[in-house]
Amino acid sequence: MQNSLATQVAGIRLRNPTILASGVLGISGSILRRIAEAGAGAVITKSLGLIPRAGYKNPTIVELEVGLLNAMGLPNPGAEEFLNEISIAKKGGAPLIASIFGSSLSEFSKVAEIVAKGGVDAIELNLSCPHVNTTGLILGQDANLVKELVKNVKRKVKIPVIAKLSSNVSSIAEIAKAAEEGGADAITAINTLRAMAIDINVKKPILANGIGGLSGPAIKPVGVRCVYEIYEAVKIPILGAGGVTAGKDAVEYILAGASAVQIGTAVVTRGIEVFKDVNEEVKEYMKENGYKEVSELVGQAHKA
Ligand code: DHB
User: Fold this and answer.
1) Which of 57, 143, 184, 282 is surrounded by the fewest CB atoms within 10 Å?
2) pTM of model > 0.90
3) pLDDT tens digits for 102-135?
4) DSSP letter string over 38-74?
5) Nearest CA to ligand 1 atom 8
6) Rounded to the nearest whole angstrom, what is the distance from the C-alpha of residue 168 to the centroid of ligand 1?
7) Catalytically annotated residues
């Protein structure tokens, strides 16, 4: 029996359901191209804003037993500067998604227009950076603002718009519904969790910013729960993110309701081979369980 890893999310055809998560490997066209060539079904940039941002002082990242903790402070060269990288990134043969952030609704729309004109295949709205207070999370915690924000961006661009949500809210399903009502084409769940690590010898937080975002295996059960709840609340597709390290993790997210998964921390801990490995393992699972298409698997954990 032939089985296929191809899947469709928000009108974008993916040759397989593994996507490079935002933030892990920056915005360099040549690196995004390499990730596509290593087997990712699509690649997402580090979040881009309207103007260049230096980010926080070091240390910005610390490896913990259960995952990574980071607070970079959204460093980026600005959306305009990124446009030179687009044609290079797309040589990898996978759809290119620009992650964007803004400090206001109008700034989000401006950045969206810039990257859309530059030729990216879709936009992911970072509504969920866990610690840069003027952006993302404050907007992303308010259902009405999320709806307005998505609506504004959708008015400005023709390409698919994906809303990346935080689990640091009382009801992620409610926020996902608001994004859907605003016209979002898909939801990404979840971003990193607000967290902290303290150096017990120095007796101070390790990260220069104090609070950071926790990613990796520790947050997978939270991500799976969020995807499960969102799947019951909306009709648009979901991209699962948070702790996908092996094929079994991807399958878990897909059974919860994700049409594809994003991989971030595991690219750091396992290397870029992770895309090929996860895909092979998902294919193996499908073969063993008699599935021909990824779509047959999506949301199966909801069946009575
Ligand atoms: C940063 C942004 C995020 O959205 C996130 O989840 C973690 C870190 C940052 O640039 O600091």
Assistant:
1) 57
2) yes
3) 988 999 999 999 999 999 999 999 998 777 765 6
4) TT-SEEEPSPB-SS-B--PPSP-EEEETTEEEE----
5) 71
6) 14
7) 129
